[in-house]
Specification:
The chain is α/β, with parallel strands linked by helices. The radius of gyration is 29 Å and the shape is elongated. The longest helix has 18 residues. Helix 5 links the parallel strand 2 and strand 3. Helices cover 35% and strands 21% of the residues. The chain is built from 17 helices and 15 strands. It has two domains: 225 residues, Rossmann fold (3-Layer(aba) Sandwich); 167 residues, Vaccinia Virus protein VP39 (Rossmann fold, 3-Layer(aba) Sandwich).
Length: 494
């Protein structure tokens, strides 16, 4: 649209007034201050096409990294993200913008904004504007030339939103990403636009990388920022929280390690030749153990990072891992011969509904094996002892929940000593026994990472003195220590 000289003069005055105001926002300003400025404090001249809270989250990530080289695919009309980059990047950063005039997704900035956008950066920073298709080889070569032999620390992709379009940008410009760099994808939330399929591409690739999602509301029907690190998921990137066992983080002599492993050993003996679902499989070590006797194991977990880790660390020809919520099992009815679910039911408020779903996917007569902490031991019947648990159960409550199954058998898992030790230390005080046990166990655990590494004579003592999480039929009583976990084995009604 043509404008007269007076309108052009007013427009330039308006924008340059905004630039002068922008100069007052320093590079080390908090992320919230940066977002407040472009959304509220500058007459919306530089308001970006992203959700404000998500821009704050992204700015915090960039402030921790202080990238020296940034590439943006799809700048839009406002240039607001160029401002965010300039205030969160290194003081001598190079910022490269690629934007297609008249592009289908979003509105490209008009030519008269070019001198304005180039002045957004701080002294010492360089902003390069490329007005061309990101898919063109010439554009890619120009970006690489502007990087001048360096790799990009941060790449923001908000251009072509078709599946093939975003895939091409991701793969093409991903080749320019530094080893510790980040690629961000805009619009990972399911979008109403019929040609926007970024969320589909995001779902296909995110589990292969260390990633993070910055989303205000998954029901907002647009926006959402997905961050992907170039490095693949490895053991050191999967956090041990105390709830999810990560064997690579713990020693085999650790009591938490032992209690988890014993449960899967117990289940493995019942699933020979079966098609098994490991519900809430965690890091995947248990699925791997089940696969040694089962015909097929399907491990599911709600955490994408965990599934990525399991797929890398505990893969197998007869094991398949998938991100899935146990509230909605995406399997046909009568599909599995057995469902194993250890330390899951206490994490959900919908315990009956969860077991109804389990019964649905089990074949008639199919086997259910589940475990849960004994609330009478873990917190003496009072409050839940960990913030990760929603509702812990007594044995009576657990048996009531599995009434929809038949032939329920209850087992208890307890920390116990070998009987040989009990018989010969009865004359010792409880304090003396405990003190001796701790010294031997602590010595072994400090010196050796694996039980097999302990010299044979000392290993015999270790086995006798270390606490073991053995599994007993519930009728068996141990006079020394109460059960810490309940295990139920039952069958789906025919």
């Amino acid at each position: 649209m043509k404008t007269n000289p007076l309108q052009r003069t007013f427009r330039y005055f308006y924008y340059y007034a905004g630039l002068l105001k922008m100069r007052g926002v320093k590079r080390n300003s908090p992320a919230q201050v940066l977002a407040d400025f472009i959304y509220d404090d500058c007459w919306e001249l530089f308001k970006p096409g992203q959700v404000k809270e998500e821009v704050v989250g992204l700015a915090k990530v960039l402030q921790k990294r202080r990238p020296q080289t940034i590439v943006e695919i799809g700048t839009g009309r406002s240039g607001g993200m160029l401002f965010v980059y300039s205030r969160t990047a290194d003081k001598r950063a190079t910022i490269i913008s690629v934007d297609l005039p008249g592009g289908e997704f979003g509105n490209s900035y008009p030519a008269h904004k070019i001198p304005i956008f180039k002045r957004i950066g701080l002294r010492g920073q360089k902003i390069h504007l490329i007005r061309a298709s990101s898919h063109d080889k010439e554009t890619f070569e120009k970006v690489r030339s502007l990087l001048n032999g360096r790799l990009a620390d941060f790449i923001f992709i908000d251009g072509d939103h078709t599946y093939e379009g975003v895939k091409q940008d991701f793969e093409m410009y991903g080749a320019l990403l530094a080893p510790d760099g980040i690629i961000a994808l805009q619009d990972i939330v399911p979008c109403k636009h019929p040609d926007c399929h970024v969320e589909e591409f995001w779902q296909d690739i995110k589990n292969s990388y260390v990633h993070r999602e910055i989303v205000k509301d998954w029901n907002q029907s647009w926006a959402g920022i997905g961050l992907i690190e170039k490095r693949p998921i490895t053991a050191k990137h999967l956090e041990f929280t105390g709830e999810r066992l990560v064997p690579a983080v713990l020693k085999e002599t650790d009591e938490t390690y032992q209690e988890h492993i014993e449960r899967y050993k117990f289940a493995s003996q019942f699933v020979k030749g079966m098609n098994v679902l490991d519900a809430s499989c965690g890091a995947g070590y248990g699925s791997k153990m089940l696969a040694q006797t089962a015909k097929q194991v399907h491990g599911i977990d709600i955490s994408p990072e965990t599934i990525s880790y399991a797929s890398e660390r505990y893969a197998g020809a007869n094991i398949h891992y998938e991100v899935m919520d146990i509230k909605e099992l995406r399997f046909p009815s009568n599909h599995f011969d057995a469902v194993v679910s250890f330390e899951t039911i206490e994490h959900v408020a919908f315990q009956k509904e969860f077991l109804d779903e389990v019964r649905r996917v089990l074949k008639p007569g199919g086997l259910l094996i589940l475990s849960t902490p004994n609330i009478e031991t873990t917190c003496k019947g009072k409050k839940v002892h960990t913030p990760f648990h929603v509702k812990e159960l007594t044995l009576k409550e657990l048996l009531e929940l599995v009434q929809g199954f038949e032939g329920a058998e209850a087992y208890s898992q307890k920390m116990t000593y070998h009987k040989w030790l009990y018989k010969r230390l009865r004359l010792f005080s409880r304090y003396a026994k405990e003190n001796l046990r701790k010294k031997i166990v602590q010595f072994c655990e400090k010196r050796y990472a694996r039980v097999e590494d302990i010299p044979t004579p000392l290993r015999i003592l270790y086995y006798e003195f270390a606490l073991k999480f053995k599994i007993f039929a519930s009728a068996e009583k141990n006079p020394f220590i109460k059960p810490t976990f309940w295990i139920i084995k039952a069958k789906a009604k025919k």
